[in-house]
Amino acid sequence: GGNQAPAVGASLAEKYKKSGRVVLSFFGDGSTNCGSFHESMNLASVLKLPLVVIIENNLYGMSVPFSGSEVEGTVRASNIEDIAVRAAAYDVPGMIVDGQDVVAVFLAVRSAVERARKDYQMTIVEAKTYRWYGHSRSDPRAYRTKAEEKAWHDRDPIVVLSKKLLNEELSTQEQLDEIKDKAENTIEAATKFGLDSPWPNPADLTKDVYVEETYPAELVESEEAASKRVTEATDAFETALASSTAKTKKEATEKARAQIKSQFGMDVMTIGQAVATAQAEEMRRNENVIVMGEDVGLYGGAYQATRGLLTEFGTNRVIDTAISEAAIAGAAVGMALRGMRPIAEIMYVDFVTIAMDQLVHVGAYNRYMFGGKAKVPLVLRTEGGLGRCIAAHHSESLEAWLMHPPGLYVVMPSTPYDAKGLLKAAVRSDNPVVFIEHKATYGQLGAVPQGDYIIPLGVADIKRPGKDATIVSYSRMAMRSLEAAKVLA
């Protein structure tokens, strides 16, 4: 069932592009009892996507029968007989078809595809079929009877189709035998190729984990030149703010901002504003950049980091979703695989735990699993850290967890300048990037150059040169370290 949420994203991409394409997602009955199934089906129905879901109900999830077995001691995986009835919960059509009948499956799926293409409506097709062998080589199949296996074996799809072709005089037995021989020879050749092939070279273990990052020289050079000026401008802003004689903090801030803009040609903004600015600039630059997640639209994001995007770009590119972290992450993977560059927001990094299967197994590992043929250019934005008095499940720092899976980049900016430049680099990266903003830094002010610039991913930034001690840090603690350095200097 790992492909359910990516299929949602892929169909969302095709709808956005108006390509006329329909996405088909195949999976088994066992995964329909997973939470990601509900999240994905709900999201697809709400967004009215050109998606056809084909559930191969082979009656068993590993050893547990979906709706019961004659063997004593077995339990049911579900209290319903037909998975297709769940379509009613999403207000979409549900179809049940004999999965052993090739023609019946073809006709059912064809009608579902036509509906998806014409009406942008998902259909859930349940094909009743059977699994001849066990789930694995060690499976003794004690959960079903020999009589049951024989009854289904007599209705093998090849047997059913062959009889139909012969009865309708659409084929001869000789032609069918020729097709069978050709298929068996193909399988034998493929098996021999696999057995005769050398084992992979251990030196290639880390190959195709990441897409190599490349940056336009002019953008990197301008960033290096701007970095020192940003520090000077931020220091000047703080000095102007501290020495201001204005009656209110707001007035003092605005005067200091005007001074920095006049003197350095830079804006002074918060990290939250820098994040919103970066997203808006990248969306203007590339129409394939979209923003999706909980409260990203009218609400403007949990910390207002998507404020103004809905007004400028509309609901096709700023997509509010249900509270469905797995579906959000998986849909972002699917969109990325179809050429989009989604920025998916998970409201708090604590909730990324719900999306880990999609983010890691389906997203981060995708390129490696497909031999370097895939690119997954997505950004998963989220908020981490404590300091807001919002309890344990909204205050975790989980960036260390996210640094373990290969294939993922993890970014945590320290300043508004970093936030804008790093987020723009993340959006342009062909790798999946988790971009974590510390909640306690959203109001932090700093100078930010106007116009386009990027900060290369994976490159250290010397915030304060010296020769007495070296402190390596990131995000909020990088700034606390700078504060300590000023006191100790």
TrEMBL record:
Q: InterPro entries attached here? A: DH_E1, THDP-binding, Transketo_C/PFOR_II, Transketolase-like_Pyr-bd
Protein name (record) = Transketolase-like pyrimidine-binding domain-containing protein
Enumerate the UniProt keywords alphabetically.
Answer: Oxidoreductase, Thiamine pyrophosphate
Q: Does the keyword Oxidoreductase apply?
A: yes
- SUPFAM superfamilies documented for this protein: Thiamin diphosphate-binding fold (THDP-binding), TK C-terminal domain-like
Asked if the Swiss-Prot or TrEMBL record annotates the protein with the keyword Transport, the reply is no
Query: Which parts of the sequence belong to the Transketolase-like pyrimidine-binding domain?
Result: 269-444
Source organism per entry reads marine sediment metagenome
One Pfam annotation reads Transket_pyr
- Give a GO molecular function annotation for the protein: oxidoreductase activity, acting on the aldehyde or oxo group of donors, disulfide as acceptor
